Amino acid sequence: MKTWAAVVLLGMSVVLGACGGKEAAGADKKEIVVGFGVGTYEEQFRQGILPILEKEGYKVEIKTFSQNMQVNPAMKEGSIDASVFQSTAYMEGINEELDADMAVLNFVPSAPQGLYSEKHKSLDEVKDGSVIALPNDPVNQERAVRILEDLGWVKVKADAGTTDFNLNSVEPDKYDLKLEVLDSAQILVSLADVDFGVVNGNYIANAKRQITEALKIENTPEQHRVTVTVNQTDLNTNWAQALKAAYESKAFEDYIHDQAKYDGFILPEAWESN
């Protein structure tokens, strides 16, 4: 009987030891996959972050998705370890929608939204019937409409949400505008077909244009700044902390400051201690 108990305990210790070793291996792994949507954040990573991680012995696979909506399902199914494309507000909405458990690791240099036009040189040229292109996802659409609200072009109902925002919450103010909803990545290339469009700044930078070309730039609240996102269970892993440290490093800060395309980006507060 004592012999049998010893065998059982030994077996349990072997199983537990194997599980513990697996968990440790996950925390200490040196191969990671990072996902991106379309835009400039992949270039920031490839040029400014990847060299830092490689010097520390990490092997990184970069996955770029053609549509932002594809990134978070990939995170949930485990095909990527981290993503760099979304805001806190967007992430929280997707967590609820997908029953996911993603968390913010850190903030990255973020591009504000702006109101752009190829047909007009001034905001004074707006009139009743002007066509305004807006992003189709609720979070970015709410941000875009707030720009129009700040200009006095529209009114937004007090009970309008963020992650569940829709255009039913928008009413005319000074002007009766036609609001046209497009995929965020398509607005910049569609500016010739509309009067004005609200474009996420990362698409502007990626097109080798300047954010300062905007006729109006948003004052981006923290909940709309772009983040590095990981699953909650990975927040304190060695690889996640190495990723966070790279984004907060002086070397990456210097890289961003040396690139004119990032003029106008909102910079991480963590850099204040560099």
Characterization of this structure:
The protein has 274 residues and is α/β, with parallel strands linked by helices. The protein folds into two domains: 30-110 and 224-273, Periplasmic binding protein-like II (D-Maltodextrin-Binding Protein, domain 2, 3-Layer(aba) Sandwich); 113-219, Periplasmic binding protein-like II (D-Maltodextrin-Binding Protein, domain 2, 3-Layer(aba) Sandwich), CATH 3.40.190.10. The chain has nine helices and twelve strands. The chain has helices at 2-28, 41-55, 71-77, 88-98, 138-150, 184-187, 201-206, 238-247, 250-257; strands at 31-36, 59-64, 82-87, 102-107, 113-116, 131-135, 154-156, 170-172, 178-182, 196-200, 216-217, 226-231. The strands form three sheets. The protein has a five-stranded mixed β-sheet with strand order 2-1-3-12-4, sandwiched between helices. Strands 9-6-10-5-11 form a five-stranded mixed β-sheet. Strands 7-8 form a two-stranded antiparallel ribbon. The longest helix is centred in the N-terminal third of the chain and has 27 residues, at 2-28. Mean pLDDT is 90; it is low at 1-25. Its main location: membrane. Pfam families: Lipoprotein_9 (PF03180). It is a lipid-anchor.
